[in-house]
Amino acid sequence: MASSTSRPHSTALSVRVAGAADAAFIADCNVAMAFETEGKQIDAALLRDGVTGLLARPQFGFYLLAELHGEAVGTLMVTYEWSDWRNGLFWWIQSVYVVAAARRNGVYRALYDEVKQLAQQSLEPVCGFRLYVENDNRAAQQTYAALGMQRCDYQIYQQGG
Known about the structure:
alpha+beta; Aminopeptidase; six-stranded mixed sheet; globular; transferase; GNAT_dom; GNAT family N-acetyltransferase; Acyl_CoA_acyltransferase
């Protein structure tokens, strides 16, 4: 992944690749997101370890951080999936969260624009972006659709976790 400098999306909104100093904010966002979207209480200590674990392993992905007037207001994580069918990587957008007071201000759009920009700069081939969203989270679904993302024909199954 190429490194990006902070680029303003408006005079007050900027996005940058997150670092170790951002781990507590990212973990707090993930705790809030799990509760707001799924009503789940997540083990905060385990989550902090998971955030720092990814930050220490850039081969697995990265986090972006959005700042409004210099204050952290949103984050997302990108992880990688190789597609042999396409000879490229899908970048999975996960752990998306924008603090309530900053919603409807283009924060997610700025984060998504940065993901696309970083993908264009990537030395590895990026063939597309994917994400999953709770079935009942209509607001998020509308946001993703408005940015040109389309619902897939796949369902997600898992074992464990």
